[in-house]
Design brief:
This protein is an alpha/beta fold and about 325 residues long. Helix content is about 35%, strand content about 15%. The structure holds zinc ion (ZN).
């Protein structure tokens, strides 16, 4: 049973449904999660619409629209999954029910149009990861490093409009210059939904101490990613303890009120030993207790930090 409220800021599971690997609405052991495995393990799961490279650039929005409908269809097959659209949807949680927050991984699908952003908001999207690793109309992804540029004027306009609409800005995957541009532009807390600490593992997808501190100053958070190559230089050796190391380190740099989870489940082809799928999350709680976090700190890391940020960002009703 859930002792803590648990929020996970990133998974790519809908892609497995799209590619015919599984249904989220059927109990199974394929990949890392489905609606039934989320029950009693996660209260609020961010579900990302990730557009595979072969759909880009011309079919990006088409693919996102297909994925949104596919997730709606999956949700309609069960009676215990609800979408989070407003702050009211964050008021009550029960272990038997699962809430889902719809997020898009990469602003490529906007095609340079704020009107598309507003349409996607109206379809229930509440978070946008501004870029994936590639460059798009908003700015450069971290795949363009070491010479990645910052946000375009359109990218800045998107951040401002997301603030107005009540959408959470996600800077995971963004090149570093863009990260600083987002912080200069946003009037609301932002997140890095699925990244790790660069000081422990020097990977372009991870954040430096300066970035972590700036995220904390913005009252935002980092969701620690479970992908072994982001956790340790020797990914084949990664265990659940390496996730704990990143959580401890980020908490020391930022304060534990700015740290959360961003599993990247079903978007990663390797998993840490001891945290092979979502049903293993209770073991992470045990580990956090063992390294000395208080129960209040654990509650914040496992979920309340995300709720605090969402309550500052999502629309009232
Ligand atoms: Zn990602």
């Amino acid at each position: 049973m859930l002792q803590y409220l648990i929020v996970d800021g990133h998974c790519d599971s809908i892609l497995d449904v799209y590619n015919g690997k599984k249904s989220l609405a059927l109990q199974n052991n394929i990949g890392h999660l489905d609606f039934f495995r989320l029950q009693n393990n996660v209260n609020l799961q961010f579900m990302a619409f990730f557009v595979e490279s072969h759909h880009k650039p011309y079919n990006t929005l088409y693919n996102v629209l297909e994925l949104i409908d596919l997730l709606n269809e999956e949700i309609s097959k069960v009676n215990f999954v609800q979408k989070v659209l407003t702050q009211k949807d964050l008021e009550s949680f029960s272990p038997a029910s699962v809430k889902i927050l719809l997020t898009i991984e990469g602003g490529d699908c906007l095609g340079g149009s704020i009107r598309i952003l507003r349409n996607l908001f109206n379809l229930g999207i509440r978070c946008l990861t501004l870029t994936w690793n590639n460059r798009n109309e908003l700015g450069d992804g971290c795949g363009e490093e070491p010479h990645g540029s910052g946000l375009s004027q359109f990218g800045k306009n998107v951040v401002k409009e997301m603030n107005n609409l009540g959408m959470l800005v996600d800077v995971s995957h963004l090149a570093e210059k863009g990260f600083w541009d987002v912080l200069d532009t946003t009037g609301k807390p932002i997140i890095a939904s699925h990244s790790c600490c660069k000081s422990i593992c020097n990977h372009p997808r991870n954040l430096s101490d300066l970035q972590l501190k700036a995220l904390a100053q913005n009252d935002g958070l980092i969701g620690i990613n479970f992908y072994p190559p982001f956790l340790k230089d020797k990914p084949q050796e990664v265990t659940i303890d390496d996730i704990v190391k990143h959580i401890v380190y980020a908490s020391e740099v930022m304060g534990p009120e700015h740290v959360g989870l961003g599993s990247d489940f079903d978007g990663i082809d390797q998993v840490p030993q001891g945290l092979e799928d979502v049903s293993k999350l209770p073991f992470l709680i045990e580990k956090l207790e063992r390294v000395g976090f208080s129960s209040k700190e654990i509650a914040n890391i496992m979920g309340y930090n995300y709720l605090r940020v969402l309550k500052k960002v999502l629309p009232d009703d």
